[in-house]
Amino acid sequence: MEELVLFEKIENIQILKINRPKRLNALNRETVDLIDERIEEIKKDKEIRALIITGDHHFAAGADISDMIEKTPEEAKAFLFTNTFSKLEHIELPTIAAICGYALGGGLELALACDLRIASEDAQLGLPEINLGIMPGAGGTVRLPRLIGEAKAKELIYLGGRLTASEAYQYGIVNRVVKKEELMAEAFKMAKKLAEKAPLALRAAKEAILYGGDRTKTEALSRESEIWSGLFASQDQKEGMRAFLEKRTPQYQSK
Ligand code: HXC
């Protein structure tokens, strides 16, 4: 049987590819469990500097509807992907969703748990759950309004329509749109750029942004000050600033 999730490391970039093409990469429990296992492996691998999540021809056409249809409320709760997607959101390295084809429902929610999103011109994004008599349940009602504002998020969630890649760019859902054949190269280029940055500083920035998203402005500012000043205990901070003053490229040690 084909592997549902392909896992490839190129240099210090990890690529995770959903591979269930006959179902347009619809996410069944097994696929999400495999994604979860892979996230645990990535957390242990200190070499990895960035993660790209993508799918074969399509990103993912949502949660698997045939898996969900007969579920009771308790079973539906157990089926949810929230824990895995939150684990992904909090992983201590930068993550990029490279989106081609459909990114719908739980598929888009997976992409929303990534730090950055690049879409190819053929991509179609949406939260069509309303058309199935449900609503987004794996972060869509939470992450999307925070990302693009309530008005646009409500439009997508209430009407259940789909956006083209360029509309998704205008909405602020994706960071950039590229030609289909260039998607992985562009995602890799961005990942390499991220991999060159000071890892501790990137991790700190991510932590401060995540913390701030959950708190009042005053609490967030206070935590930002703490995280920021904590970085001055790192060799990478000294190296980054020294390299600037000495007009050379910094060599970061993740220390
Ligand atoms: C199960 C799916 C699927 C899905 C596609 N397929 N999406 N199976 N769950 N989410 C299957 C189809 O049944 C079909 O199987 C095959 O994949 C190819 O799809 P087609 O529909 O024939 O392709 P096409 O006509 O090109 O239409 C593509 C599509 C459509 C527009 C993406 O498939 C579609 O609307 N899919 C459902 C999208 C959706 O509603 N997603 C949200 C799910 S709810 P056969 O056997 O006929 O070849 C959700 C909740 C998340 O995500 C909450 C967290 C758990």
How do the strands and helices of this protein lay out in sequence?
Elements: E1 5-10, E2 13-18, H1 29-44, E3 50-55, H2 65-68, H3 73-79, H4 82-90, E4 95-99, E5 102-104, H5 106-112, E6 116-120, E7 124-126, H6 140-148, H7 150-159, E8 162-164, H8 165-171, E9 176-178, H9 183-196, H10 199-213, H11 217-230, H12 235-245
Parallel strand pairs: 2-3, 3-4, 4-6, 5-7, 6-9
Antiparallel strand pairs: 1-2, 7-8
**pLDDT < 50 runs, ≥5 residues:** none
Number of domains: 2
Number of distinct beta strands: 9
**Average pLDDT reading:** 95
Taking the alpha carbons of the first and last residues, their distance comes to: 42 Å
Helix % is 40-55%
If helices are DSSP runs of H or I spanning 4 or more residues, what is the number of helices? 12
Radius of gyration, taken over Cα atoms and rounded to an integer in Å: 19 Å
**Annotated CATH architecture of the largest domain:** Alpha-Beta Complex
| Structural shape | globular
CATH topology of the largest domain: 2-enoyl-CoA Hydratase, Chain A, domain 1
**Class by helix and strand content?**
alpha/beta
Bound molecules: hexanoyl-coenzyme A
CATH superfamily of the largest domain: 2-enoyl-CoA Hydratase, Chain A, domain 1
Question: Within the largest sheet, what's the order of strands?
Answer: 1-2-3-4-6-9
The CATH class of the largest domain turns out to be: Alpha Beta
| SSE run | EEHEHHHEEHEEHHEHEHHHH
Instruction: Tell me about the largest β-sheet.
Output: 6 strands, mixed
Strand content of the residues, in percent?
15-25%
